[in-house]
Amino acid sequence: MQTQAHSAPPPSGRLLEHPAREEIRLESVLHALADPMRLLVVRALAAADCEQACSVFDLPVSKSTTTHHFRVLRESGVIRQVYRATAKMNSLRRDDLDALFPGLLDSVLAAGALQAERLGG
Amino acid sequence: MQTQAHSAPPPSGRLLEHPAREEIRLESVLHALADPMRLLVVRALAAADCEQACSVFDLPVSKSTTTHHFRVLRESGVIRQVYRATAKMNSLRRDDLDALFPGLLDSVLAAGALQAERLGG
Fold first, then answer.
1. Cβ-based interface (< 8 Å): residues of B facing A
2. Residue A12 domain flag
């Protein structure tokens, strides 16, 4: 957990492990997106279009489950997490995902929005 | 396992359970596609563009695991399975998926092809 695959200088001394772009796998990305809570987080990050602290996501699950979901998203390459002071900040790895899998993230986001509308979610 | 949600008359007396179009959920579809073997099957069905018997898929897993993968694909709404005589025939539910989640299946298929090319798969 003390290595970092990307080259941007970290904002604080505490680093979190991320796959490099070329290590990201479609199956892991789809698995990460296949959970309703994680899809909710990804949709919120896409809508916010800027870093969000984990604490702004008031998911109807325990804190440890929330942490697990963010970890799955990070380790699959869907989000980047950095510490800023004591907050863990999250952002979508849109550039990496769009470069590897053109159109995939947008179609999943659109599908999630359509389904939420259809089911009243 | 003795009901069938769609209205097409079955080709044989043995029926397999399928979700109706409105019962298909994005999370289940993504989960079904998140497995390498299942993604391989879906890519092959898309390339064939016609019904394929389970037996033509020579997956490097046991017969029972193969059966499990096809069942996950069917129960998530990704494929339709019908018995024709003793063969179980499989086809993509492209119309249903495209209607519910426009562009999703195509972007996953394209991403799978790109990754296979990149990794030499």
1. 25-28, 30-31, 33-36, 39, 100-104, 106-108, 110-112, 114-115
2. no
